[in-house]
Amino acid sequence: MNVLVTSISAKVPMLKTVKRALSKLDEGGRLFGADLDRHCIGSYFVDRFWNMPPIDRLTVEELVRFCRMNGIRAVIPSRDGELSFFSANREALREEDIHVMVSDKACVEVCIDKVRFASRLLENAFPVIPASERLDFEADRYVVKERYGAGGAGAGLALDAEEAVRHAGRLTHPVFQPYIEGTEVSVDVYVDARGRTKGVIPRRRIRVVNGESQLTSTFRDEELERMCAEMAERLGAYGHILFQLIQDGRGRWHVLECNTRFGGASTLSVAAGLDSFCWFLLECSGVDLAEVPFMRSDRELTLIRHAEDRIQ
After folding, report:
1. How confident is the model at residue 143 (pLDDT cuts 50, 70, 90)?
2. pLDDT band for position 213 (50/70/90)?
């Protein structure tokens, strides 16, 4: 069961987590990593590195050829910009006995598009933050961000109407949302091959730098966990996905977005029992996860992300 993780960059904690998942399998396996940058930090933490071509130049035939030559049966994309490629080709790869931990094309496209995502969840009565291409609603303050993709790069926060319109002029595809003040929360979810939620773990984002949690702690909230499980299933997700929410001062939840991939600090949820990579690899081998228990940690855990030197 050799595994390929793409766009590995400097995602060392993720790579180590995938390696631990491989070690749990009876058959074992080697970890392959791929990236555009042949000198990326992650290349030192895999068994073999592939200097992969840009995703817009990669063909399915080339990917299949590489996987066949190296006995790779499982692929884990890790970057938003490649999810569309892998979701569009997921079934073609499966026919070659190459399994990809990615949701189907419809789910990925909805989650990438903030307007469609908000519309879909509103249709199902989930408390999502509305998103509009026009400033055609009233709010005390506004958020302006790019319509497509995950994260808030280039976003304008807590703007008045005049500032919001001005900021929108700096973006390619701007969308407007009401500004909600509160505590940021991430919720990791794994949905199995039958479309059933296997496990959910929420974590509070205590310190966020460049959109990623440097300090985050798990917690329990049964109502929130049920809601995220239902949202994941309604969206038709598969594998590991990540919801971002805000809890306002009155305790109400507001859904920001859904990333259909493993998150930067999702390793904490794995440590707390959401064994996503191991579950995915078991499913690649034909195991029904209904036979595998979700062993949630009986204590809450905290993740502190920090730089570390490696000398070799």
Report:
1. very high
2. confident
> How many Cβ atoms are within 10 Å of 96's Cβ, its own excluded?
14
| pTM of the predicted model over 0.85 | yes
Q: Tell me the one-letter amino acid at 253.
A: W
SS (H, E, C) 13-64: HHHHHHHHHHHHCCCCCCEEEEECCCCCHHHHHCCEEEECCCCCCCCHHHHH
3-class DSSP state of 109: helix
Cβ count near 80 (within 10 Å): 18
- Report pLDDT for 207: 85
Q: What is the pLDDT of residues 168-202, one digit of tens each?
A: 999 999 999 999 999 999 999 999 999 999 999 99
φ, ψ of residue 32 to 5 degrees: the values are: -105, 145
If phi > 0 it is left, if psi is from -120 to 50 it is alpha, else beta; for residue 28 that is left
Contact yes or no for 90/104 (Cβ under 8 A): yes
Range list of H helices, 134-263? 161-168, 222-235
**CA 35 – CA 267 distance, rounded (Å):** 20
Domain 2-102 matches domain 182-304 at the CATH topology level:
no
Question: Closest Cα partner for 145 from 124, 117, 121?
Answer: 117
Task: Please state the separation of Cα 80 from the chain's center in Å.
Answer: 8
**Domain 182-304, second-level architecture:** 2-Layer Sandwich (3.30)
Tokens linked to 126 = 């989930």
Contact 109, 77 (CB under 8 A): no
The structural domains of the chain, with segments of one domain joined by +, span 2-102, 130-178, 182-304
What's the first-to-final CA gap in the chain, in angstroms?
A: 27
Name the CATH topology of 2-102: Rossmann fold (3.40.50)
